[in-house]
Amino acid sequence: MDKQQKINEFNGKIKRVIIAEEEIKTAIKKAGKQISDSYDGRPILLVSILKGAFVFMADLCRAIEVPCEIGFMCAQSYFSGTQSSGVVQITKDLDQDISGYHVVIVEDIIDTGRTLNEIVKILKARNPLSLRVVTLLDKPSRRVVEFNPDLALFTIPDFFVIGYGLDCSELYRNLPYIAEYAE
Ligand code: IMP
Ligand code: MG
């Protein structure tokens, strides 16, 4: 396959844009303000779940106007393509003690709910001052485990989506918008 065929194949899987770059920007600005207002100067630690939430984290933290620290955890539940394995693995843990912080988990998407259910359990056991969850996308129709985020920027139907950090087999994270993947 030559270079152009590879590019055509890549682009061919982007079915349609479902959330444009500008819409994401506007929603993040609003969420940043909401988060800044609700903590009122208290110490917050934003914990991003890698890899998918790295783009959202980068934009959300810059929309927050109160002092905040950042941390990363890596959880894997998707091992290939669009199918979830159902098993959540923590492959990188936080390197800070969270007991003195109001923790805000920053996630890309809640699908079955398994990943966050597991992470929330683990982090609660470490006694943070408080624990909240903000997600860019929520697919409530796909839940297997009951889980409700404190803040979801967009609720979407049962599509497999790519872009803005979200991948399909590690590709498409670099798209600046959210698109439906052509299966
Ligand atoms: P859950 O554990 O099923 O809630 O899934 C959470 C993780 O699966 C997310 O953090 C994503 O990394 C991945 N995931 C779920 N749905 C999608 C999707 O539509 N596109 C890309 N990744 C997804
Ligand atoms: Mg993720």
Task: Summarize this entry quickly.
With 183 residues, the protein is α/β, with parallel strands linked by helices. It is built from 4 helices and 9 strands; from the N terminus they run αβαβαβββαββββ. It has one domain: Rossmann fold (3-Layer(aba) Sandwich), CATH 3.40.50.
Describe, in plain words, how this protein is organized in 3D:
This protein has one domain: Rossmann fold. The protein is about 25% helix and about 35% strand. The chain contains four helices and nine strands; from the N terminus they run αβαβαβββαββββ. With about 180 residues, it is an alpha/beta fold. The strands form two sheets. A six-stranded mixed β-sheet has the order 4-3-2-5-6-7, with helices on both faces. The protein binds inosinic acid and magnesium ion. Magnesium ion binds next to loops. Inosinic acid (IMP) binds next to β3, β5 and α4.
Give the helix/strand layout.
Layout: H1 3-12, E1 14-19, H2 21-39, E2 44-50, H3 54-61, E3 68-80, E4 83-92, E5 102-110, H4 114-124, E6 130-138, E7 151-155, E8 161-162, E9 178-181
Parallel strand pairs: 2-3, 2-5, 5-6, 6-7
Antiparallel strand pairs: 1-9, 3-4, 8-9
Helix pairs in contact: 2-3
Bound molecules: inosinic acid (IMP) and magnesium ion.
In the CATH hierarchy, what is the class? Alpha Beta
Q: Give me the CATH fold name.
A: Rossmann fold
Amino- and carboxy-terminal Cα gap: 20 Å
Number of helices: 4
Radius of gyration: 17 Å
Uncertain segments are none
Percentage of β-strand residues: 35-45%
Overall pLDDT confidence: 93
Bound small molecules, by name, code or SMILES, are: inosinic acid, magnesium ion
Largest sheet, described in full? 6 strands, mixed
CATH architecture verdict: 3-Layer(aba) Sandwich
Helix amount, in percent? 25-40%
Q: What coarse outline follows from CA principal-axis ratios?
A: globular
Q: In what order do the strands lie side by side in the largest sheet?
A: 4-3-2-5-6-7
User: What class do helices, strands and sheet pairing give?
Assistant: alpha/beta
- What is the helix/strand order? HEHEHEEEHEEEE
The overall number of domains is 1
Number of β-strand runs:
9
